[in-house]
């Protein structure tokens, strides 16, 4: 068992979704596979620790496994399922994307990061 999985399991003793100490971060554990369910996903980065999740947008299927992530940059409806194998529960971390903050950072990048006039 790798260190990341051990850390997840120490933080997630039971199946479920758990808010982390950092605002906008959610830790997830699923002990059994789930069927496809419709979701409204807000802008988020989902990082996989163990197991697999699949997203379905129309006929397109996207799989993400340990070491991979799903980036959703705009709110969208799609279907999702969870696959658990003999390695253990599905473990993942979701980090909400603050669109206002991203827009502010992009504006600063366009101006070279100068937010105030030099004295």
Structural account:
This protein has a 5-stranded antiparallel sheet with strand order 1-2-9-4-7, covered by helices on one side. It is α+β, with helices and mostly antiparallel strands and 119 residues long. The chain is 18% helix and 46% strand. The chain has 2 helices and 9 strands; from the N terminus they run H-E-E-E-E-E-E-E-E-E-H. The longest helix is centred in the last third of the chain and has 12 residues. The protein is globular, with a radius of gyration of 17 Å.
Attribute tags:
4-stranded antiparallel beta sheet; alpha+beta; 119 residues
Beta-strand segment tally: 9
Estimated radius of gyration: 17 Å
Strand order of the largest sheet: 1-2-9-4-7
Strand content: over 45%
Low-pLDDT parts are none
Number of helices: 2
Helix content: 10-25%
User: What letter string, H or E per element, gives the SSE order?
Assistant: HEEEEEEEEEH
Beginning-to-end CA distance, first to last residue: 56 Å
Major sheet characteristics: 5 strands, antiparallel
* Broad shape: globular
Give the overall pLDDT as a whole number: 89
Helix/strand-derived category reads alpha+beta
């Amino acid at each position: 068992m790798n260190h990341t999985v051990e850390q997840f399991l120490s933080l997630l003793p039971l199946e479920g979704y758990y808010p982390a100490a950092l605002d906008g971060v959610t830790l997830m554990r699923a002990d059994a596979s789930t069927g496809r369910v419709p979701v409204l996903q807000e802008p988020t980065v989902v990082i996989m620790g163990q197991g697999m999740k699949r997203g379905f947008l129309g006929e397109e299927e996207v799989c993400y496994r340990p070491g991979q992530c799903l980036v959703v940059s705009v709110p969208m409806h799609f279907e999702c399922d969870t696959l658990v194998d003999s390695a253990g529960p599905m473990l993942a971390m979701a980090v909400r994307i603050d669109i206002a903050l991203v827009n502010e950072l992009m504006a600063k990048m366009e101006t070279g990061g100068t937010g105030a006039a030099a004295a």
